[in-house]
Amino acid sequence: GRHHGSCRPAGPRGWGGRAFAFQSVRVGANRYVHEMVCLACHTIGGSALCNRCRATLRAPPDRLLPGGIRVVAAFQHEGAARKLVHLLKYQGLVHFARLAADLVESRLPELPFMPIPRAWSRRVKYGVDPAFVIARELSARTGQPVIHGLRPPVHTSRRAGGDHRRRVIPFRTRGMPTQPVILVDDVVTTGGTVLA
Hints:
Distance between the termini: 57 Å
Radius of gyration: 19 Å
Mean pLDDT: 77
Low-confidence stretches: 1-20, 22-28, 30-34
Strand content: 15-25%
């Protein structure tokens, strides 16, 4: 019979680590195989994201923020996409970054990427800067450089899933380029962080 063992990550976490969940499955008296588990719904299958969860990933239409800033998003922030973002932000699993880069690459102008940095306190706590990971994936696909022109605050109040009416602390700049850039963030809701 098939008896499930414990689910465990394969590979390092944190800065761009490759990590996927595998399940030990008993197929005989003394024989086990390892099958990949969907990162979003935890069902056993042949890939890090099952077909059912992949089918729920929907790209929203582009929208404009005040000042004419165009927002291009890979997915609606719901369902499997929401789960994958959470895994990137708090466990350092980069599968979401690769999926997002694959989907938005062709929709972007040929410009350098500037990630919106995570506050230092959260970067140290979780070991990952989600916007930088996404920007790095986009850079690898397009050949455009990643520019670090924004200084992260030491600490900010958590906005993900919280009160988005709170004022966003403005970012300090360092060596800002003179040409246009593409700002990269892991989640855009009201656009307050981008506008800051």
